[in-house]
Amino acid sequence: MDVVERIADGLRIPGHMLGLARRSWETPQALVVTEREAPQEPEPEKQTPASLPGPDVGSILALATRTSLSTATLEAFRSSIEDYWRRDDQHGGEALRPAVVGQLRYVVGLLKESRPPPIQNGLYGIAAELARLTGWTYFDARQYNQARAHFTEALQLAKESDDRQFMANVLACMSLQATYQDKPADSLALVTAAQDQARSALGTTPRVLSMLSMREAFAHATLGNRDSTHRAIGEAHRHFEQIGASDPDPSWVNYFDEPKLIVDTGIAHGRLGEAATAEPLIADALRREDRTNQRGRAFHAFWLARTQLDQGKLDQACDTATQALVPASAVASERVSGHLREFYNQLAPHRQEPVALAFEARLRELLPPVSGSLHP
After folding, report:
1. Sign of the C-alpha dihedral, residues 289, 290, 295, 296?
2. pLDDT in the model for residue 114
3. Would 254 be classed as within a structural domain?
4. Which residue range forms the structural domain that includes residue 321?
5. Are residues 148 and 8 in the same domain?
6. Of the candidates 152, 171, 204, which is a domain's last residue?
7. What is the DSSP letter of 113?
8. Do 306 and 195 fall within a single domain?
9. What is the crossing angle of helices 294-310 and 314-329, to 10°?
10. Residues with Cβ < 8 Å from 278, sequence gap 6 or more?
């Protein structure tokens, strides 16, 4: 816990964002009512079949067997992480999480042994990435308390090897989560801390800076700061134009390609209510997006439908949202499913229109409510 406190104090992150008490340097809290996170029921303890070893035996066996690690071993870990992310895009993280958590705990166990600095730092980086991936799977399931705990763990692990670019990446994830929790001021504070970390790191690439500027744009858009959103979007595009083919980009930022820049630009405009600007950007990015990325396609189709609805294009909006249901049903993502149910609720003034009724029927068929029910 003292490490987490040092992170909060060093990066000037308000204590409540990392599950800590208010820090001594914070200004007195305003008399505001903050939104409480939805309570999460503890997961029931699962019984291990008699033919399988208990969960504690794996860690005991890992301690009993000294593992000789090489750079090839580290590359194998990194390759498995890249595969986890691909499968997360295609199927969601729900089924992946047990394997990811198991590998995380295994790597953390390896860190207890003394190793040469290059190997040890590599292990810290791998553990940090696995912790971030675990946090992401919880975020995508809208289990925000669990997500924050694992993002904080990832931040702590990255700090051990002084990987400031990756610390910036984790803080950017926490910033994105804050926008989902209707905490835009927290989102802006976190992404500002992320940018500070990235700028203080040696060799931060334009792609990383572009991604962070776009996350800043999301935060400003959620706050309704039009000028600041446009400025951050402009910075994201300027950084992106500086990307070179030989840049030493970290693997975790490779997803931020031109279609992603374009669709995120559209989403930022959409968050501001600038639907006419947002629609062609999101539509263009969707046409260019990898078809294996089921969650991304469903999420971006939702945003396209929302911008169309905001312009009064009811038929187009319902058709687009209906197309989003197929990839959404193929991926375990409560975040995406929730967005499509949110779209259904936005159809309230048009609920008796044939296109709205058709969307509702398809929604009930492909995405039955997981928690609660559709609002009539």
Report:
1. negative
2. 87
3. no
4. 291-376
5. yes
6. 204
7. S
8. no
9. 160
10. 266, 267, 269, 270, 303, 307
